[in-house]
Every structure is written in structure tokens, then in C-alpha cells.
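As promised in the previous annual report, we have extended the structural survey to additional targets. Below is the entry for Thioester reductase (TE) domain-containing protein.
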Amino acid sequence: MLLMGDEKMGRKTSFFTGFPGFIASKIIERLMIEEPGMQFILLVQASQLEKAEHQIQTLCQKLFQPPDRFTLIAGDITMPNLGMEEGLLSTLRTDITHVFHLAAIYDLAVPREAAYRVNVEGTRNVNDWCLQLEHIERYIYFSTAYVSGKRTGRIFESELSCGQAFKNFYESTKYEAEALVQAVRSRLPVTIIRPAIVMGDSKTGETDKFDGPYFIMRFLDKFARLPIPYLGKGEGPFNLVPVDYIVEAACFLAMDPIGENKVYHLTDPEPYQAKEVYRLICEALTGKAPRYTVSPSAVASLLAVPAFRRWVMVEKETINYFLLETEYDCSQALKDLQGTGITCPDFADYISIAVRFYKEHRQDHNRTIQIH
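The corresponding C-alpha cell record, generated without further manual editing, is:
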């Protein structure tokens, strides 16, 4: 329900892209509690409207909230003015105080054209839309820690363009998109969130897609009865964060004045080595530890064969993230979250919960990533 006249004075109204996606839904759920007067305007692709309506009903029933806190708008970030009808624009320009831009293609194997259209052109359109808003208090853009591409060593939150190459089109287009957002920081109150690889909820294990580290579980499923190998030395850090940490931290940094004009690595400040992550997943899933080591290049060669990667249900681009020699400095995030009680859980403390959820839902096709 759009607010009119005096009703909207002093009222916060958030505008979301990326709903009914998992992280957007979780952020909205938290804000419904923490910001009881906030209205939510959700830009949704026409094909997702039915799913979005069901998700809103679920949230409202769960939290005993009235559905009139929500307005669903059919639109498309790849179009000027986000594909919204002209009649809405004047009202929205005066209502919206917070914009959360999460819509993106996150697939590591995405072709460049599709990734560029959504991630780059879409973000350019969201930027242009935000610049029209009369009362915007914060523009929260969800980037990724992996805009660092193939860089090695310590990566700081203040860094972006360092001449880096990229491992895939997901990374390169998210880099280009963040560069566009960085360019409007002088004209908009921006907060940029760069998560590491996102796991399910640390308390429940809940996730909507079995991608990222869950590809390891898919891989191990196929070989659980055999002696299991390590994938190379795995001496570099493998940075994983549970979604509840991302949600809690992002909501605080988005709504508190401290987060304005900041870039945050929402990464694990003490990540495990890739080898240890693999061992912990293996032990939780199969009950046994890896016993020998194979070359990552050998695994990469197998994953280059379409029939093999479809059989193991693993994207070939995944192997690159086991070879990273990159440390993400998150000093700004730790400083600004100090005293809030919001901290990144230890991977070893929640991996068994993640594995249990995976085992219970691994046959759910809605959580399965299509492998080409």
C-alpha cells in the first residue's frame, strides 16, 4: 500500500530488487521486526509475481503482520525506470527512503551477455532510478568479495580497481556493477556489501540453493563409498559466511548512520584453509576424512567434460575457489559492528547443521542448480 499525504511523513519506505530471492526475503523478514513502521515496495519480475505473493503471505503469517505493509510492482531492472508504469513513478520518487539492490545473476557459469545485461546494465538503471528519489536516506548495494578477481594477498575494503583479471563473467560483471555504484557515492548515501561465499543459516541450515560449498557435498555424494581424496594442498583460506550473519550485519549497517558511504567485506575474519573446510564437510557428510591427495588440475579436467559434471552436479568453475590465495580484510566491518553482538559464526560450529539440512533436502529439485 503506497502511503499518501501526512501518513508518509517520517515513515521509512524501502524498495527492494531481488525479491523473492532468499537473501532479500531474509532481510525483509528481519526489517519487519526491527523497523515496525517500515513499508516495503518490492520490484518483481512478472514471472515471479505469484511466488512473491506467496512469500509475502508466508512472512506476514509467520510474524503476525498485516499484508498492507507490502506493495508488489511488476518490473525489470534491465529496462529504463526499471520497467515500471509511468503512473507509479511520481509517487515512488517521494515515498522511498531506502533502496536495497540485490537482483543479479549469481551463476559462476553464466555467459557474459546475460551477466552484463542484468548485473551491469541493471545496476546502471537502479543507480539512475535512485538519483531521481527525493528523500533517499540510503542506497544499499550487494556486491561480492570476489570483485577482487584473480588478485592474491590481502584485499582491503577500500580497494576495487587494481588491474585485476577475473575467473568468470559473474566476477567481472559484478566488478563493473560495483564500479558504477562507486561512481555515484558523491551523489547518493551508499552502503556497499561484499559477502564472501554464502552458506545456509548457522542455526537451522536453511538455504534456497545447493550451490557454492554445497557443490562439494554433491561431489562427495558420488564417492562416499570410496577412499576420498583431498583436492590439492588447499593451503589458502576458503572464506565462508552463513546467511544469518550477512542478514544481521547488512540490516544494521543499512539502517544505522555509521554505514553511510562505507564498503564492507562481510567475510569470515578467521577463515579456515580450503583443505580444512573440505575435511570438515567430508567428515560431517560421510563420517570419514580424506585419505590422499589428487591434483586440482585433474579434477578440473574431469569437470570440463559435460557428462561428468552433470553426473556429479558440480560446475567446473567451482574448483578455482579452492585454489585462492586471497585474504579479505574486514576491519571496517568489524569496527562498525563492534558492540552490536553481530559476529561471524565459526564454520566448524555450524557445518554439521548445514550438512543435516542438505541431507534432508538434497532431492529437492527446487534447490538444485542446473549444470550444463
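The CA atoms of residues 193 and 264 lie 5 Å apart. The chain has twelve helices and 13 strands. These points will be discussed at the next consortium meeting with the crystallography subgroup.
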